[in-house]
Amino acid sequence: MTNSTEGLELAEIIFYAIATIPAIYCFVKHGKHGLFGWLYVIVMCGLRLVGNSMAYHAMSTTGEPNVTASIINGIGLSPLLMASLGFLSESNHSIQRTLPAFLGGFGLLIPHLVIGAGIGLAAASSKHSILLEVGLVIFAIGWLIVVAFTFISWKANSASLRSDDEKKILLSVMIAMPLVGVRVIYAVASAFAHHSASGGSLPVRIIFGTLPEFLVMVNYLTAGVVTRNLPRNRMEQRPEPAHEYQMVRLVLHFLGGVLSCTEQKAARSEH
């Protein structure tokens, strides 16, 4: 079992080391509107690399799990949900003014605070299992809020006005939500049953813990690479739908016509 556990830790180290490369690429390509989403993905990769490296070292030397590594791996779940909020915001950028206020700006602070409070309690639990249980329940509430925000964004009356790339990003968030939910429910159930965010047998840990995270990461990285030109497309499309520029053109055209008529009348009067 120890060898199998070490193999799982090593597999996660390799996966997140590889995932860091496209994550940094997407962070650079997506610009300021994708900043928070991809920053959280990079943080997720970093926490998983540190946590699993410590766990692998502990299992290969002492054969016992490392408490610090368990805490880091527990915290590592929160950036994945935070990243989903960041991607949701990026997918709503072009229609933000038509959406409810809580889907932008300070409204997104609510799930951030809930998720942060939940994972903070879980990280501070140490030997107090009740804090771990309460923290993960609060974290699960944060996930439900993100699911609600995603559904409202998808059903918005102006949803069809999103660019094609924004629709792809929103689709990736919708695909990720059930997978994140499996991971969150597993963490909550494990906390009550095993006093750990990732307890149970090795197959259970792989199916309900590791695999959903891998799938979410692959989903987001694929969407990020596919939509890498989104900032450039926004710049190219910006003048087209801007009604204020069209109004300016009409006004200038009208003024030009008035001046032309005035000059013609002035010329006739001189003759």
Topology (elements, then pairings):
Elements: H1 2-29, H2 35-61, H3 67-75, H4 77-91, H5 109-123, H6 129-155, H7 164-194, H8 202-226, H9 230-237, H10 243-270
Helix pairs in contact: 1-2, 1-8, 2-3, 2-4, 3-5, 4-5, 4-6, 4-7, 5-6, 6-7, 7-8
- Poorly predicted runs of 5 or more residues: 239-248
**Domains (count):** 2
Mean pLDDT: 82
Strand content: under 5%
Round the Cα radius of gyration to an integer and report it: 25 Å
- What is the number of beta strands? 0
The CATH architecture of the largest domain comes to Up-down Bundle
Overview of this protein structure:
The protein has 271 residues and is an all-alpha fold. It folds into 2 domains: 1-238, Rhopdopsin 7-helix transmembrane proteins; 242-270. It has 10 helices and no strands. The protein has helices at 2-29, 35-61, 67-75, 77-91, 109-123, 129-155, 164-194, 202-226, 230-237, 243-270. α7 (164-194) runs antiparallel to α8. The chain starts with a helix and ends with a helix.
In short:
With 271 residues, the protein is mainly α.
List keywords for this structure.
globular; 10 helices; 2 domains; mainly alpha; about 80% helix; about 270 residues; Rhopdopsin 7-helix transmembrane proteins
